Amino acid sequence: MIRRLSEGLLPVLLLAAFPAAAAPLPPVSPLPRVASATLCADQLVLRLADPQQIASLSPQAHDPTLSLMIGAARTFPARTAGAEAYLADGVELMITDAWTGQSTAALLERLGVRVLRLPLTNHQDGVESMIRAAAAALGHPQRGEDLIDEVRARLAAVQASAAGAGRNALYLRPDGGTAADGTFVGWIMDLNGLNNQARRYGLTGWAGVPAEALVLDPPDLMIHSFFDRTAFSLRGNRGRSGAYTPVVPVITVPGTQWVCGNWGLAVAAETLSQALGALPPSGARQ
User: Fold this and answer.
1) Would you say the pTM of this structure is higher than 0.70?
2) pLDDT tens across 14-43, in order?
3) CATH fold of the domain at 30-152
């Protein structure tokens, strides 16, 4: 009982020791020790940080259906941690997003830990800004610029190939969700020269596909992702039970490649381009 009480009081004692009106905090180390709190932060930390900088990764980092750099990720702890655990690990920088673990992030900020919150982005400028911000925070700005150059070159090659050749394509997840205009998946489809069938359905953003529209106005091809995740959602069985059986060609892009709107999108773009290039020639349906 005493132990539980002492554990519960620790955050309060920490706040008392570091009040909000304290003197200015010392500068963060040039190469700060970092903890990643989200899957998308994992991708940036693993690409940009030195291994000895990494204290821990997100709870999803060891999930092979979600983690793009699963091999590298498995060499680091993957966990949900409270402020006490991060401080015990000597964390100086936490990278998260604007909606995950914000109470912990706010507490860490009050205790002198820098917090970088990654925004949701659906376009190339946003991806580049995110890489640049993460690289600067990690103390490797040139590494960030090199990654940006790499992403630009890979996306430019995909766009030049335009392997979609004007085909009407629909992205589909096992829960019936799709990606229309205003999403990074939609952007990558456009980059590949595809016509996004979600537009024909009058959809915008991340949306559900009306079953009637799929039957009455099917696309030329389907793009599947996340069908390997057995626990994708409560509705996930709809896509795996036989209720939905595609009658057009299906391309599978691993969900790991575009689960996040950052540098991994270049990998997804190339996977999609290569798969489109392997399809037999087909005229676009107008």
Assistant:
1) yes
2) 433 333 333 343 455 789 999 999 999 999
3) Rossmann fold (3.40.50)
Segments making up each domain of the chain, as ranges: 30-152, 163-277
- Tens of pLDDT along 150-159? 999 999 999 9
Q: What is the pLDDT of residues 91-100, one digit of tens each?
A: 999 999 988 8
- Tell me which residue has tokens 């205790």: 111
Determine the 3-state secondary structure of 178 from DSSP: strand
Which pLDDT value is given to residue 98? 86
Pairwise CA distance, residues 33 & 55, whole Å: 6
Sign of CA dihedral 156, 160, 163, 165: positive
Query: Binning pLDDT at 50, 70 and 90, where does residue 82 land?
Result: confident
Residue among 41, 26, 264, 57 nearest 135 (CA) = 41
Instruction: Tell me the C-alpha distance between 246 and 235, whole Å.
Output: 17
CATH number of the 163-277 domain: 3.40.50.1980
Please tell me the distance from the alpha carbon of residue 229 to that of residue 81, in angstroms, as a whole number: 25
Measured CA to CA, the distance from residue 182 to residue 125 in angstroms comes to 14
Same fold, 30-152 and 163-277: yes
157 CB-near residues (< 8 Å, 6+ apart): 270
**Helices first, then strands: H and E counts in the chain:** 11, 10
Is residue 152 within 8 Å of residue 160, measured between CB atoms? no
